[in-house]
Amino acid sequence: MAAQQGIGPSSSRRVALKNLVRLIPAIVILAATLNTVSCKNGNGLFSQGGGGGSPTAAPTTGTGALAFVTNFNDAKVSSFTRNITTGVLKHTGQVTAGAKSGPRGVIASPSGSFLYVANIKDDNIYEFSINQTNGTLTPLSPPSVSNGNATKPDELAINPAGTLLWVTGAAGTVTSYTVNTSTGQLTKNSSIGGFNTPFGITLHPTLSVLYVSDTVTGLIQPMTFNPTTGALSKNFTAMHSADPGANTPAAIAIDAAGASLFIADQTIGEVSTFSIDSTGAIAQGPTFSPNSISDVPVGVGIAVNTGIEYLFTANQGSSSVSSFIVNGGTNVITPPVIAGPYNGPTGLVVDPQMVNVYTADKNDGTVAQSIIKGSCVASQICTGPTVSTENPANANSGPFGITLAQ
C-alpha cells in the first residue's frame, strides 16, 4: 500500500441528504489504543512494509471473546483471548498463512469455528479451525484454496449464516465462495470483474447487497448477490463521493439500520457519506473533514454507546484514531476527537459490547485497545493497553487485519 499525500478536504458539503430513519442499537464499541494528540508519519495503506488488520468494518456475532490479527511481513496469523469485561487481549498463539508480505484480510465465520485469511502475495485463501477456548488455529485439510492466478486476494466478507464468503482481488475482481458450515471448507463459485483495484467490502445488514470500494476510480459499487451461490450482479449504479477529489476510498462502514454508508479517503483524509435506500442503492451525502489531510485513514468502524453514535477511523499516516459523533443519518459533528500517538494503525474493529475499539498497528507490531467514554479527560475515547501480536515480540511483523469471534 503506497503512502498517499493529502491534497486537502472537500468543500462539497452542498449535497443534501434525505431524511433517514435510523435504528440505534444499544451497543458498545471497541477502542484502539488511543493516546492523546501526536502525529507520526507512516507508510500508506498499500505500502510493501506491512499493514494492519482487516480494515473493513464487519459486525461481530456473539461476545467477541477471541481476536485474530494478520501479520503481513512474516505471514503469521496471531490468536488472542479477549476479556469481554475489561477488553484486554492475551496472546495465545501464531501460525503461518502462506507467503510472507501476503496476509492482509481476515474474517471469522459467524459461528466462531473457522477463520479465513487472504494472502495477496500467493493468491490463496487460507482456512483454519478455531479452538473454542483459546482461539488457537489449526489449518484445515487442504489448508488453502486458490483465488486464481495473479488475482491478489485482499479483503473478505461473510454472510450472517456463514454460508457465503466474498474476496476482493486487487487485480480487479470480486470472487464468491460457498462455505461448508460443518467442515469450514471453501468452494469457489464465480468472479465478477470490471474493477480497477477493489479493496473495501461489506454487506448490507438486511438486504442481499454487497458493497465494494475501488481505490483507483473512487467508486463504491453496490451489487446484489444470489443467496445460494453468492454470485454477484451489478444491478446498481456505482457512485463516487460528492467530492470529485476523493478517489482513493478504503474500508466501508454501514450503520446498523442499513441507512447510511461511511468511507474514508486515503489521499485527502476526509470521510464521505452516502444514504442507502430500501433497495440497497446509494446516493451521495455530505463529506466531512479529517483531523489532517495527512491522516491516510484506512479502517473504519461504527458503534452506539449510551445512545450516541460514533464513527472511528484508523489514521495510518498521522498515527492516530479519529472519533466522530454522528448526529442522525449522515450528519456528523466535526472536528473529531483525536487519540494517539499510535504506530501506523490500519485495521480497526469494534467489539460487540461497543465499549472498545482495536487497531492493528503496522509500525510496531502491536494491537492497541481504546475505550469509549473512558476515564480520560477527553472522555469521548481514551487510550488503553497495547499487546504485541507475536511471541517473542516482533516490532517488524507488520500487523494488517484484525477481527473478533465467539
3D structure, described in words:
By secondary structure, the protein is mainly β. 0% of the residues lie in helices and 47% in strands. The protein has no helices and 30 strands. The protein has strands spanning 30-31, 66-71, 76-82, 89-96, 103-108, 114-119, 124-130, 137-146, 153-158, 164-169, 173-179, 186-192, 198-203, 209-214, 219-225, 232-233, 239-240, 249-254, 260-265, 271-276, 282-288, 297-305, 308-315, 320-326, 332-339, 345-350, 356-361, 366-372, 381-388, 399-405. Strands 1, 26, 27, 28 and 29 form a 5-stranded antiparallel sheet that branches. Strands 13, 14, 15, 16 and 17 form a 5-stranded antiparallel sheet that branches. A 4-stranded antiparallel sheet has the order 4-3-2-30, with no helix packed on it.
The ordered string of helix (H) and strand (E) elements is EEEEEEEEEEEEEEEEEEEEEEEEEEEEEE
Structural classification? mainly beta
Radius of gyration: 18 Å
Can you summarize the main beta sheet? Answer: 5 strands, antiparallel
Shape: globular
| Secondary structure tally: strands | 30
Low-confidence regions? 1-53
Strand content: over 45%
What do the pLDDT scores average to?
86
| Helical content (DSSP H or I, runs of 4+) | under 10%
Produce the secondary structure layout:
Elements: E1 30-31, E2 66-71, E3 76-82, E4 89-96, E5 103-108, E6 114-119, E7 124-130, E8 137-146, E9 153-158, E10 164-169, E11 173-179, E12 186-192, E13 198-203, E14 209-214, E15 219-225, E16 232-233, E17 239-240, E18 249-254, E19 260-265, E20 271-276, E21 282-288, E22 297-305, E23 308-315, E24 320-326, E25 332-339, E26 345-350, E27 356-361, E28 366-372, E29 381-388, E30 399-405
Antiparallel strand pairs: 1-28, 2-3, 2-30, 3-4, 5-6, 6-7, 7-8, 9-10, 10-11, 11-12, 13-14, 14-15, 15-16, 15-17, 18-19, 19-20, 20-21, 22-23, 23-24, 24-25, 26-27, 27-28, 28-29
